[in-house]
Amino acid sequence: MKQCDRRRLAEVGNRKCLQQEVTIMKRLTGHANIIQLFEVVETPSQIVLVMEFANGGDLLRYVRTQRRLQEPCAKDLFKQLMDGLAHVHDMRVVHR
Fold it and tell me: What is the number of structural domains in the chain?
């Protein structure tokens, strides 16, 4: 889940940025290497993006925990990254 405080959304550009994120995430469905957005829940104080749970945590934390990856593991992770990024580009989205 990603929680967004409504007070912060009042700052210039934050609401538009969140709206763009939701729109893009809805377009990027159905790929194994991209976290899926299931639902957007709005409460009086926040907006919550309900997303797929990444059981292993995020990639940066994994790499830092492992400290050193064996080549087969690194190749597999890189392939997954490139597969996900290719899907993003196929959907005409630029990741920055």
Answer: 1
